Here is the input.
Amino acid sequence: MPLLVDVITLFPRMLDGFLAESILGKGIAAGSLSVRVHDLRTWTTDRHRTADDRPFGGGAGMVLKPEPVFAAIEQLQTPGCRRIYLTPDGRPFSAGLAQELSRESHLIFLSGHYEGIDQRIRDRVIDQEISIGDYVLTNGTLAAAVVIDALSRFIPGVLGQEKSLTHESFSRSLLDFPQYTRPAEFRGISVPEILLSGNHAEIERWRNARQSEKTRQVRPDLLK
Ligand code: ADE
Here is the structure.
């Protein structure tokens, strides 16, 4: 069953290039993935198309109003869909979560903005909150793109070869081994001899050793 993804954002054009390009476009072309981007202002009702307002209790910044967001989600939602809010205080995103999301049939992503969104949105029309990392973006639209890109790679038909998924980073909680291609010597720098040997068992051993070494250096937390 193809996966339908709806994105609700104040900045729909941020996703234009992302959706048109690369591997993701293949899944869309193959019909295994369908992404629809919606301008939140479509669901505003006043002349100025107001989507945000000042926070009750004071403070800097603006808060996304509940009315247009409730209207958008209530119009787009289907039974069993998962409604996700992108926010730095959400559950940390991971390959495991990407794979879990790729098995759903309908996802709705809400991109936040400004200082936040009215809590009633989170309490009533959001099922899950996801953060893509411990840093704050100006809005959640790029975070939605990151999540969609990562989950799309688990959808059959999006990646060319099934193989590329099994070998790479995080499938075994290790970082990747170094890759080389032709020419075997470039500006006096040679490709490691072993890779030209044709000895597949030795190559496998060498790659495993490089993975352990790299993981120990860069991400020792993954080895625990
Ligand atoms: N919106 C702003 N920063 C974010 C983050 N780190 N993850 C998800 N959504 C966000």
Notes: The chain has a mean pLDDT of 92.
